[in-house]
Amino acid sequence: MTPAQPIAAFFDFDETLLSIDSAGIGFKVLREQGYLSWGFMLKMTIVLFLRKMGLVDEKVMAAAMVSFYKGRDLKLFEDNALDFYTEYLRPNLSSEVLAKLRWHQEQGHHTVLLTGSIEYYLKPVVEDLGIDHLLCSHLEVDEQGLLTGRPLGPICVKETKLILAKELAENNGIDLSKSYAYGNSESDIPMLGGVGYPFIVNPTPGLLKHAHRQGWPVL
User: How many domains in the chain?
Assistant: First the structure.
């Protein structure tokens, strides 16, 4: 008998596995610590307004956020990542989605954190929760070891999520048609549509409308 192919469960992070937006709380902490200039805060206010109006997409918003890191030392953020997770992120993990994660782990499924958020503050998440794979956005570093304010490779949103999921599946023999995905926004639609069992969590209006058309279950 041919052994069954492995199954995976893909989890978005912000407002899915995490009940809040990690970038929002992250920038709040940075502002309190005096890291954010008024110019950057004004830029982000404008970008967020344009995003709510539907005039820019998540890639533009993510690129604006990443620009904050220009000229800074990544090690500073890596050294504070565990404290940031322990104090601000861990208390805001969604108990319902966390229960789903634990169920998948009990079934022996590959668990994957698939998110547009940045690698350095996600490492404590996957280590604490025992998640098998991390697929996310990365920061570019220059020859002097400082951050450039640009992403390294594409921001992990929209079609990029599905591309990375397919690459992971191919490398690990995972059957996507029997796999699961959990997401909350339109950015997750390609990923959700690429698996056999998509689940909608805390959905944006656009995703909720799409989910109703597709018959996807909403948690």
Answer: 1
Tell me the DSSP string of 16-46: TTBSS-HHHHHHHHHHHTT---HHHHHHHHH
pTM: 0.91
What's the one-letter identity of residue 12? D
Contact by Cβ (8 Å): 14, 20: yes
* Cα 102 to the center of its chain, rounded Å: 18
The CA distance from 85 to 95, in Å, is 16
Integer Cα distance of 14 and 25 in angstroms: 11
DSSP 145: S
Give the residue among 31, 32, 10 at the shortest CA–CA distance from 109. Answer: 10
Helix H segments across the chain? Answer: 22-32, 38-52, 58-66, 74-84, 95-106, 119-129, 159-172, 189-193, 205-214
Residue 188 inside a domain? The answer is: yes
Task: Give the integer Cα–Cα distance in Å for 83 and 28.
Answer: 15
User: Is 35 within a domain?
Assistant: yes
Q: Per the domain annotation, does 68 fall within a domain?
A: yes
Considering the domain boundaries, does residue 1 fall inside one? Answer: no
Question: Domain of 42?
Answer: 8-214
pLDDT tens-digit readout, 126-138: 999 999 999 999 9
For 104-128, what is each residue's pLDDT tens digit?
999 999 999 999 999 999 999 999 9
